[in-house]
């Protein structure tokens, strides 16, 4: 709330933002007063009245002073006061996973920064809780340097959460959004490490089911870790778990294998290879294979269409890389590249060329991409708050037991926005699953562009032949 002058800065705060800041422990009265002093000075220099300022100005000032980050400022403006979960203090939002929201947290006693994934109250149905427990068990059984490690799991009241290592850096989606497509060697470095993680998971009987750029984390030193087992399932559990949504399409539309659409109860490690191929395509072109359209349209295109050849989008992509991506993205899983180990083997010619400069350049990209995240609201995956949920005045302070409740509200309307980073669980309506695998278009992958060029060439030749024949017959 704007102040009438600089002499009453120690008065009791009048705004929801200030009250929430003090109640949460994120702000002290001295910090608020100092910020108002700074704002008053700037207003005087600009010959403006302090009455023209607002809580937004105060929030911006505190963010600029690095007392708050942008996410904390938004939460306080909405009257949120609880920023703890068990022994953890919530620092920032990281994103949305397959079964919950992920936050950057600090253990209040140990001072250790970790990632905390929370199952929202809107996902408290028995099947959702069972799926969350399944994710915890899956991560507990896996330990690999290219997989995000599980540290702990617990409950805070009726809130389930799991703790994983915090991976500094950026995910592949943010990285490419900020810097454009990767070079061939950089892509080989990232994809080979992701494939190594998948090889380990597959050998242990686990299918990830949500491989995508948003789940491929890259650290400032170039190390890649595969994240989010929220939709993962052990192959042996596919038929026996009553809570497993094995008759629904599970995953992210832009990276779903055809068989994950037509026969979601029969997915296999090969489905992850297809998704990794789509991720590889994205890494070297900056585009998903089938951009635009609704979720249903994307699912149909995964079944019936072939994407543009990467060379149409990035001319420097080598033919051998295109062939590898093609083999990873075959519509028919029987014709697809056999395993993650085979992907790594096929990448060896480029892996052998990777040197220190490749790691350094990739790390530099990651650092600058991470610096851009703060202001890039379009990439944040937390769900926006309904305006009806925000109340004003002192009664607007939200001290309920559920932390950061606004960020935990699910929005079904996101399914039809068809963003490549959003996982979905869609019950098949029959329209998108009617085509059997055998009826998919020609396995001349990326042949669409090549075939089109060949047809045009033949048409030109035929036209020239007709013209020559007509001229000849006229003599």
List keywords for this structure.
globular; 6-stranded antiparallel sheet; alpha+beta; protein serine/threonine kinase activity; 3 domains; Phosphorylase Kinase, domain 1; Transferase(Phosphotransferase), domain 1; 475 residues; 3-stranded antiparallel sheet; single chain
Provide an overview of this structure.
It is a single chain. This protein is α+β, with helices and mostly antiparallel strands and 475 residues long. The protein has 3 domains: 16-77, no CATH class; 83-166, Phosphorylase Kinase, domain 1 (2-Layer Sandwich), CATH 3.30.200; 170-372, Transferase(Phosphotransferase) domain 1 (Transferase(Phosphotransferase), domain 1, Orthogonal Bundle), CATH 1.10.510.10. It is built from 16 helices and 13 strands. The chain has helices spanning 16-24, 29-45, 55-64, 70-77, 126-140, 172-179, 184-203, 258-262, 269-285, 295-304, 310-313, 319-328, 340-346, 348-351, 356-373, 447-474; strands spanning 84-85, 88-96, 101-107, 113-118, 150-156, 159-165, 170-171, 206-207, 216-218, 224-226, 233-234, 248-251, 424-427. It has a 6-stranded antiparallel sheet, with helices on one face. A hairpin with a 4-residue loop joins strand 2 and strand 3. Helix 2 crosses helix 3. The longest helix has 28 residues, at 447-474. The termini are far apart. The model is unreliable at 374-422, 424-445 and 447-452 (pLDDT under 50).
């Amino acid at each position: 709330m704007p102040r009438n002058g600089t002499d009453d800065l120690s008065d009791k705060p009048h705004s929801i933002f200030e009250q929430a800041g003090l109640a949460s422990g994120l702000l002290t009265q001295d910090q608020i007063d100092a910020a108002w002093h700074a704002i008053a000075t700037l207003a005087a220099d600009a010959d403006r009245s302090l009455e023209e300022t607002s809580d937004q100005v105060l929030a911006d000032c505190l963010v600029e002073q690095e007392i708050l980050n942008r996410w904390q400022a938004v939460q306080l403006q909405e009257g949120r006061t609880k920023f703890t979960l068990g022994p953890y203090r919530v620092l920032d939002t990281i994103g949305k996973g397959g079964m919950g929201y992920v936050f950057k947290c600090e253990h209040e006693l140990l001072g250790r920064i970790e990632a905390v994934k929370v199952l929202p109250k809107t996902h408290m149905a028995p099947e959702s809780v069972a799926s969350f427990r399944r994710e915890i068990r899956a991560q507990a059984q896996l330990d690999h340097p290219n997989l995000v490690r599980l540290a702990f799991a617990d409950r805070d009241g009726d809130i389930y959460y799991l703790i994983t290592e915090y991976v500094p850096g950026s995910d592949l989606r943010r990285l490419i959004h900020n810097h454009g497509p990767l070079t061939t060697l950089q892509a080989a470095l990232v994809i080979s490490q992701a494939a190594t993680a998948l090889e380990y998971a597959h050998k242990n009987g686990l299918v990830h089911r949500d491989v995508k750029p948003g789940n491929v984390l890259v650290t400032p030193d170039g190390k890649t870790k595969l994240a989010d087992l929220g939709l993962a399932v052990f192959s042996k559990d596919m038929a026996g778990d009553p809570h497993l949504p094995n008759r629904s399409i599970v995953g992210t539309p832009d990276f779903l294998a055809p068989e994950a659409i037509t026969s979601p109860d029969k997915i296999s490690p090969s489905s992850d290879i297809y998704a990794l191929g789509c991720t590889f395509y994205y890494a070297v072109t900056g585009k998903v294979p089938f951009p635009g359209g609704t979720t249903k349209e994307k699912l149909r295109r995964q079944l019936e269409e072939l994407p543009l050849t990467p060379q149409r989008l990035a001319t420097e992509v080598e033919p051998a890389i295109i062939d590898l991506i093609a083999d990873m993205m075959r519509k028919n899983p029987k014709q697809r590249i056999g395993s993650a180990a085979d992907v790594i083997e096929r990448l060896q010619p480029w892996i052998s060329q990777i040197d220190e400069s490749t790691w350094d350049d990739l790390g530099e990209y990651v650092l600058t991409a991470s610096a851009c995240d703060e202001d890039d609201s379009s990439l944040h995956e937390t769900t926006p708050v309904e305006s009806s949920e925000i109340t004003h005045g002192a009664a607007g302070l939200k001290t309920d037991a559920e932390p950061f409740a606004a960020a935990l509200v699910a929005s079904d309307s996101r399914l039809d926005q068809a963003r490549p980073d959003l996982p979905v669980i869609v019950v098949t309506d029959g329209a998108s699953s009617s085509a059997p695998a055998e009826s998919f278009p020609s396995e001349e992958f990326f042949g669409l562009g090549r075939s089109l060029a060949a047809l045009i060439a033949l048409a030109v030749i035929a036209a020239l032949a007709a013209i020559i024949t007509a001229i000849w017959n006229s003599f």
